[in-house]
Amino acid sequence: MSRSRASRADVIHASRGDVVVIGAGVIGLSSAACLLEAGYRVRVCAQSLPPALTSCVAAAFWYPFNVFPEQRVRVWADTSYRVFTELARVPETGVRVAPALELLPGPSAPPSWSAVIPDYRAVGPSSLPAGYRDGFAFSSFVIETPIYLPWLLRRVIELGGELETRTLASLDDAPACDLLVNCAGLGSGALVGDAAVVPVRGQLVRVENTGVERVTVDEHGPGGAITYIVPRSRDVVLGGTAERGSTRLEPDSEATAQILARCRALEPRLARARVLGVDVGLRPCRDELRLELERGRSGAPVLHNYGHGGAGVTLSWGCARELVELADATLGRSLRAHSLEGARRCSGRAGR
Predict the structure, then answer these.
(1) Spatial contact of 280 and 249, defined as CB atoms under 8 Å apart
(2) Closest C-alpha among 256, 151, 267 to residue 203
(3) Helices within the chain (DSSP H only)
(4) Contact 96/141 with Cβ under 8 angstroms?
(5) Are 24 and 44 in contact (CB under 8 A)?
(6) What's the first-to-final CA gap in the chain, in angstroms?
(7) Of 146, 154, 157, 183, whose CA–CA distance to 319 is shortest?
(8) Beta strand 215-218 with 162-165: parallel, antiparallel or unpaired?
(9) Cβ-based neighbours of 275, under 8 Å, separated by 6 or more
(10) pLDDT in tens, 56-114
């Protein structure tokens, strides 16, 4: 019986096609998992694997930060929210539901993505830290990337995905396949010559958890500073910075001091929390996230899925599900075209 199941799976894979996914961050692995679940044969090619990735550094909580276009973001965020709802029921994923509070300096309309959250609600000044006049409370998800990324990698392997560590100078260096999926994040700039991709440096501080349970975020700090407090099972992640164009990976001691000061002002229980470490990552930002088909100059068609900025985890499953739809449509057309061409050739030979 087990041999019969394997045989049927091979038939499904063969009919779907071979896919190469470039990149093993949260976008690449989520895309690979969804493609495998849809019946494709998938090989992931990446320069590095978790934990040596920006995705593993992220203070990941569900929150569409610094990513466009707005209407498509809402759809992707909605899908991901529903998937994380299911994953939060599985302890080994490192995903859990967490109360969240967004702070605002004054009255503001809810963002478009708030419509996907059942309990999104306004909070008045009396329930906010001093100096804030408006805010919104909602249920979010904390995704502990040191747990989640290894789990996601295992999921890809369990589904039959192959992994290959290699550096690609261009898409032409990728292994032969029916469809190439570019999830190279910041590396996509050089890989496909996209000057619209820019790094946005993020620095965060990890401290011991002294009883904090709520995610708190303020995007409207002085000089454009973003402040966030993300409690995890063993620590609290404090942020942060959003330095557009900076590629500096060394921690900045002044930034660390500023992050600690801003976060402690919002959450007094952090006042004596011991600092455990400082991390830096480069967000792959673009004016608009790129999720689209491009006909390659030669060889396989290419699906691009990059430019998620500070919302890679938040949008990961929504983008991956849409990517599978694009793959189905693309390879479906390719297979039909191939069959028609074969039929014409056979017809021509028969006529002779």
Answers:
(1) yes
(2) 256
(3) 2-16, 26-37, 54-57, 70-87, 145-158, 188-192, 253-266, 312-351
(4) yes
(5) yes
(6) 47
(7) 183
(8) unpaired
(9) 205, 206, 207, 256, 260
(10) 888 999 999 889 999 999 999 999 999 999 999 999 999 999 999 999 988 889 999 99
- Residues 40-60 have pLDDT tens digits of 999 999 998 887 677 888 899
Task: Please state, in angstroms and as integers, the Cα–Cα distance from residue 277 to each residue in 7, 70, 234, 253, 302, following that order.
Answer: 49, 34, 13, 12, 39
Residue 315: phi and psi, rounded to 5, are -105, 0
Q: Which residue type occupies 35?
A: L
286 by DSSP, 3-state: which?
coil
* Gap between the Cα atoms of 181 and 30, Å rounded: 12
- pTM beyond 0.85: the answer is yes
Q: Is the pLDDT of residue 131 over 80?
A: yes
Contact (CB, 8 A) for 54 and 144: no
Contact 105, 133 (CB under 8 A): yes
The amino acid at residue 304 is H
CA pair distance 229, 215, nearest whole angstrom: 5
